[in-house]
Each structure stands twice: as C-alpha cells, then as structure tokens.
Amino acid sequence: RSIKILPKSVVCDETTLTGDITFSSGCVVHPSATVIAEAGPIIIGENCIIEEYATIAHELAEGASWDANNILSIGTHNVFEVGCTVKAARIGDKNVFESKSFVGKGVIVSSGCVIGAGIQMRTVQLLPENTIVYGQQALQREAIEKQGSQTLQIDFLRKVLPNYHHLRKPNYDPKKARSVV
C-alpha cells in the first residue's frame, strides 16, 4: 500500500493517510484531514481541496477484503470542506461537500453538485449533474449556474500552507514511471 503525491500537490504532514492513495497534481490537503483507503485504492483528481477534519473513506463491505481493482475515483476540482465525511461510491468533477455534511457509501455524486452544510445523505442514490442538496429535509434542486473554479483559493493555499506546516514531499512523477520504448 502506498501514498503517491504528484508534483504541484501540497499535502500537510499532519494528515492521516491510510492505504493506497494517489493525489493528482495540484491537490491541497490541509492538516488534520483524513483519507482512508480500506477497500481499495483512492485516486483523487487534479486540483481538489481537502480541508481540516474532512474525512474521505473507501470502506470495506462486511466480509470483503482489500481489492486493488475496487478503486474509488474522485474527479477534478472538488472541495471537501471542514468536518465533512464522504464515503461515496464515486465522485465526479467540480463538487462541493460543505461543512459537516455526510455522504454515505451508496451515493454516486456526478458533477457540479453541492451538498449543503450539515446534510446527511445515507440512502443509495445517484445525484444528477448540477444538483444542490440543501435545507433540513435535504431538498434537491438543479443549480442555475455551474460551479465556479477554485483556482484562486488553491493558489493562495499553495503559497500559505508551506509557511505554517510541514509538507509531505511529492514522491511520484508519472513521466519518470513510463518505460522508455
């Protein structure tokens, strides 16, 4: 089991990382974040932000064991805000999981979705593209506009986090991994 950190990623030393995890280029992982790859590998797409106390877990089903082919694929430009817990089956691109939200195992999150603060999603379901889940009853509606880019926040975090935290060094370069033909 290994942790692969691609160049341009900022992963703080104080994170809890367990299992086979790949952070694609440009990811920012705050201290006290937790990523657990218990059932199989987790591949986190480019430019994702995982904030403090956020948990991403790829848990084992009862009676199952670790399987290298059971991959949790997380798309690009996702934001996992403070204290959220995400155990989704699959996650697309440009989603926001707001503070203290919970997304259970059977949920498939497509792209452009926002799971509001404190929302609990425990039933098996597929969230259509650009869905916003909000309110005490976890109401769903389609977003009028697509999710904006988090580039300014990512650039800011890439500059500031190294000033205050120790970082895990990038340890994997896909260009060097290719065999010369």
UniProtKB/TrEMBL annotation:
Keyword Signal: no
Gene Ontology terms: cellular component: dynactin complex
Entry keyword set: Cytoplasm, Cytoskeleton
InterPro entries noted in UniProt: DCTN6, Trimer_LpxA-like_sf
Subcellular location(s) of the protein: Cytoplasm, Cytoskeleton
SUPFAM superfamilies tied to this protein: Trimeric LpxA-like enzymes
GO MF terms held by the record: dynein complex binding
Major localization listed first in the record, in broad terms: cytoplasm
Taxonomic superkingdom: Eukaryota
CDD domains hit by this protein: LbH_Dynactin_6
Record carries keyword Cytoplasm: yes
One Gene Ontology term from the biological process aspect of the record: mitotic spindle organization
Function: Part of the dynactin complex that activates the molecular motor dynein for ultra-processive transport along microtubules.
Family: Belongs to the dynactin subunits 5/6 family. Dynactin subunit 6 subfamily.
Descriptive protein name: Dynactin subunit 6
Organism of this sequence: Drosophila rubida
Lineage start: Eukaryota, Metazoa, Ecdysozoa, Arthropoda, Hexapoda
